Fold this sequence. Notes:
CATH topology of the largest domain in chain A: Cytochrome-c3 Hydrogenase, chain B
Order of helices and strands of chain B: HEEHEEEEHEHH
CATH architecture of the largest domain in chain B: 2-Layer Sandwich
CATH topology of the largest domain in chain B: Beta Polymerase, domain 2
Shape of chain B: globular
Oligomer: heterodimer
CATH class of the largest domain in chain B: Alpha Beta
Largest interface: A-B, 54 and 50 residues
Distance between the termini of chain A: 25 Å
Largest sheet of chain A: 3 strands, antiparallel
Order of helices and strands of chain A: EEHEEEHHHHHHEEHHHHHHEEEHHHH
Largest sheet of chain B: 5 strands, mixed
Number of helices of chain A: 17
Low-confidence stretches of chain B: 150-161, 163-181, 187-209
Helix content of chain A: 40-55%
Helix content of chain B: 10-25%
Strand content of chain A: 5-15%
Number of strands of chain A: 10
Radius of gyration of chain A: 23 Å
Strand order of the largest sheet of chain A: 3-4-5
Structural class of chain B: alpha/beta
Radius of gyration of chain B: 21 Å
Shape of chain A: globular
Mean pLDDT of chain A: 87
Structural class of chain A: alpha+beta
Amino acid sequence: xxSDREQVRSLDDLQIMVQTPGxxxxxxxxxxxxxxxxxxxxxLEDGEMFLNLGPQHPSTHGVLRVVMKIxxxxxxxxxxxxxxxxxGVEKICEHGDWHHAISNTDPLEYAASMFSESxxxxxxxxxxxxxxxxxxxxxxxxxxxxxxxxSHALFxxxxxxxxxxxxxxxxxxxxxxxxxxxxAALTGQKLLFNYMRIGGVNGDLNHEFxxxxxxWMGRAGARINDQATLMNENEIFVNRTKxxxxxxxxMALRLSMSGPPLRATxxxxxxxxxxxxxxxxxxxxxVPTRSDGDSYARYLLHIDEIKQSIRIIDQVLHEMPDxxxxxxxxxxxxxxxxxxxxxxxxxxxxxAAYAVSDGSDQPFRFRIHDPSxxxxxxxxxxxKGQVLADIMAIMASLDPIMGGIDK
Amino acid sequence: xxxxxxxxxxxxxxxxxxxxxxxxxxxxxxxxxTAVMRTLRDDGDLRFELLADICGVDTGMTMQVVYHLWSxxxxxxVRVIADGLSRDDPRVPSITQLWPGAxxxxxxxxxxxxxxxxxxxxxxxIYMPPDYLAFxxxxxxxxxxxxxxxxxxxxxxxxxxxxPADVREQPVIRTSAGAGAVLGADGRLLSVAAGVVADDxxxxxxxxx
Lengths: 407, 209
């Protein structure tokens, strides 16, 4: 990209002068290929053609563009193009203090923001070696697991929707609605909760939250079974997901995957058990795994995880101690120079942060590891040789959230 | 695990392996990186087979690439820091031969820091547009809007152009001057100098030129 290239009128807007006249929808970039792989991808063999998917396509679950090289119905290769939602969250976090980072990371995982907003909190607590009041820890686990269930319920509905089934998403949203109302009673917000604080949580449990929770808990198990039966016994759904997008154990590890896609291949990697945080070591729950590694195994794993989350919530409600919900901390938080790696298990996998502090009240470096980013990378190897319609089932079964991928 | 790491990698580490909480930190030179990562992944007693994270870090003086690994045999993470990359021309061998999943992580570090991963077949920008020239997460990249700066630093018009290239050659020092302030060797403000309203100007009610 030489900057002395002649300026021409943009095809998108004739008022604008640009260096390259092409639009973002050009399948073949009007530039010389920058890398070996790009040159290889944009070289068409006999009978092949390019097809553009996105950036605004409902089945890409956000603003993702995928350039596909196809031969008839079969996918030869794909090239995902990211960055449409890029905000530079890591840079923004370096320019606000540690408390600002909570609301800045909040919108990353917008379907389960209780997890992404916990990242700076866990990182700062690890840097400070801070003890959180036990009641706050229990409330956190309660909020995380409720949010996990609402996210998983939505995933199941969405997977069916991408395969053409309308009904399950109505059940999924029904489930999510109840939990969102519950969390709104707790936090005051429905989507971006902004509830976690360094040293605790923002506010104790209240009457409306607990009554909604009790109401929901009585029916939760039965409703999950309802939703599972609706899909497990649907022949079209099973035929279109079983044996599709198979990934084996070695490959999943090499691709740095985590969360349900990794556990569906038989690797029992769950941060809640592998690197325990909060009060998870004291709670009884299993880490469900499957061995098939296909879209159907990933779907079944989500059902198993919802059941484990209900089990955790049950224990938390029985063992919830009394006490304060915030540790005593100075308002201006200066963290001594140190570095720490903090991780937690989000509905999509290992959400991690590598935080470096230089002694000021702002993070010196705040790296955010998003599981969707690394899981989405597997779409390339998984979709080779599949038919075009199945790429939706593969992509939906990896459950990417573009807010976190693009950061 | 610490003893085994020292035994297998002892002579390749710049400083002895150091436990920090639930992480063991290893610092290596870029020349040894591939060999160290291969040993960590393939040795039967170590088995750090999952790449938990890969990221770049700009310390202001040098560039680093930081890897985190997970093993089913160890209760701790391993953090491998490839230290001492020059800020003018940061280069490091790619580990995509060992973990194909590192490809996008390396692309991101290239996009944000300009670190060249030698051997990565697809090293192009992943977030920023292809004709973008700067590297946003470098410490000498000044954010050109008010939102990035503390309220005590005055007002700056968002349209005022700030060219990161102007300050790229200068050493970066974090001071009490505030977020994103880049000071030159003589202590003069560099990155927030363009169009900043000084405190005394604000008090006297003058408008910036």
